[in-house]
């Protein structure tokens, strides 16, 4: 049986490649192993096909009718990373590729890499740029922006505090007049 497992990870998840070019799929293993198997699932043909097995010494065993010119496996010296190279790409190479290891009589599969092969790669979407403004733009530097969030500078709060003080001092005579008026009224009321 086949099981997907966290012991293997594949990059990338998707590849879109052009006919006659080449591509690479990387399989990372969490632990050293006795070798990596590579399989391809073809949606069109509805079959799971064995491509190649590669051991840590670099020896490869290919599946039936699999071209050694098309598929090759390269392993890192750590024996925890293997890459499948596919060259001379054709539409028939499209499918989902899986790296796999054997453990306790089970084949553990990687996450899979979907490969699509097309004659012409689609153009990247064009980015539209806003027209440049003729008006001068006022820039605010980070230090000025930070200053706005922080406490006001003395140039702002000193005149503000002075105006508040002047306002309070101008209220003192008015409060004194109101106090005298109230006292006079109180005296008139008590005299009667």
Automatic annotation (TrEMBL):
PROSITE patterns: IG_LIKE
Record keywords: Adaptive immunity, Disulfide bond, Glycoprotein, Immunity, Immunoglobulin domain, Membrane, Signal, Transmembrane, Transmembrane helix
Pfam families in the cross-refs: V-set
Record keyword Endoplasmic reticulum present: no
InterPro entries: CD8B (IPR042414), Ig-like_dom (IPR007110), Ig-like_dom_sf (IPR036179), Ig-like_fold (IPR013783), Ig_sub (IPR003599), Ig_V-set (IPR013106)
GO molecular function annotation: coreceptor activity; MHC class I protein binding
Gene3D superfamilies: Immunoglobulins
Protein name: CD8B protein
Organism listed in the record: Oceanodroma tethys
